[in-house]
């Protein structure tokens, strides 16, 4: 979809056109489903259905809806801010961490389990609105997420007395699962809006008082008080939105806050994975609402150059949104 505002197009017309494009797309999808011939359902599903890919492209659609909502409210400053997100490419004057901050602040402000664009995303992964307890639940099916966390994250938290950090905690969907398993958890994020949502749910509603929240800037080191403070650091479904320079900066920061020989868990979008390539081929250009794709060799290089040694790396697994699209790694501070 082309989300850019046309020259001389009014804010009202811009909003109407964006929403109309999304409605037309949904209508076309519905028509295609109705036109499937009897007996061809299984073949069609194999050829066209990709819940994870649909949910991810929904994030790009969400950017457009946020733009449209801003236009409808006649807020020129917010409109221009969100409009700029559509033009975010790898090589721009706006740093990657800044475009991420803008998008996720807007996402946090506009998110509700009842709004159309969130329900559209959750529908692609077979989740109903009442199932969306946290911002971000709309991005994957429960089974895929639980399988990844059970194998890649929870086994490293069995001690129960660890001090743990999450980089890119968002609305707290993973932090809420981790908090009961650790002695202390610190959630780092570039988005003040996301941290506010996470704190409200995790501390305010769930009563997890041992969880702290730290606003960070993507172009600066983390506060010195956290140096060598954590036994384990994880960043899940976050690096997929970073360019290579931001990945390097974030890994260096994670290295600085880990204790000697501490472990980290990180996920990256994998160009060489089956669903990774399909997602890449569908994505017309890089934006923070889309993904930045890397390869296993690039990940190994990044880890080595930022002071980590690779402990384990995932293999593609059909049927799991994350494992068939991403690279998951456990690495140790060298």
UniProtKB/TrEMBL annotation:
Cited SUPFAM superfamilies: S-adenosyl-L-methionine-dependent methyltransferases
UniProt biased composition (Basic and acidic residues): 25-35
MF GO annotations: polyprenyldihydroxybenzoate methyltransferase activity
Gene3D superfamilies: Vaccinia Virus protein VP39
Region (Disordered): 25-55
InterPro entries per UniProt: Methyltransf_25, SAM-dependent_MTases_sf
Name assigned to this protein: Methyltransferase domain-containing protein
Signal peptide: none
Superkingdom in the source lineage: Eukaryota
Domain Methyltransferase, first and last residues per copy: 164-262
Classification via Pfam families: Methyltransf_25
Coiled coil start-end: none
Biased composition (Polar residues): 45-55
